[in-house]
Amino acid sequence: MPELDNAWLRRHRAHDVVEITRRWKAVARRALMRVETIHPTAGGPVLFLKSRRMTDRPVYFCAGVHGDEPAAVQGLLVWAEARAEELRDADLAIFPLFNPAGILLNTRGDEGGHDLNRLFDSVTHPHMMAWQEAVRGLRPRYAVCLHEDYDAQGLYCYELNRDPQIRLADGLLERCSCMIPRDTRKVIEGRRAANGVIQRRRIAMIANLPEAVALYRAGAGSTLTFETPSEFDFALRTRVHAQFVQRVWEISKEAET
Ligand SMILES: [Zn+2]
Fold it and tell me: Could you say which of 27, 57, 70, 163 would form a disulfide bridge with 14 (CB–CB 3.0 to 4.6 Å)?
């Protein structure tokens, strides 16, 4: 494991899979959520937390598909720790550390060097097949994929909405931009962007699917892939992820009433 020189990072043991797993199990007990291990990996278990009342249309959160994006993992964790009791009657599906070996090693890929975010439709990778089995029949109302990007100059978000009237990313970024500004590049990752928002309306019939597209194809209402810039302060990035998750959580509750 590489030497980590950021004191905050060390204190929060952002790459300590055993510690992160322990904390999520504690959250699950307080939130009365069930915890499954969908797949054992060389780096540790891939956990799946489900609300006791999880329906087939939950709010879905996932972090740590890429192991070198630790603020996404910490942000989701500190959000859940801060309000575990509030989540008792929620309808949540959470994959809190999707790539344990990557987190442990601080690598993008898994222990085999695979970029898991190109394998969500894989019919040969056991970890990804276990995920497909775990989410079979789920059509999340909102699906949130938390990431970080070394090239980013600020916050950005891809969104896919089944209802063309719905636009979420702009408001979500606005809510977070007091901490880290938006990425104002006109083109991000080869796609046209407007103030950090990347809208996708049509999904190409491609293989090697990222998580958000696989979930959208499965029937998700809105998918949001949120990215923070890795070069910014770790504690700040963590807080921004927690804020993003909180706002999606609020939106999901507002939509119910
Ligand atoms: Zn990523």
Answer: 70
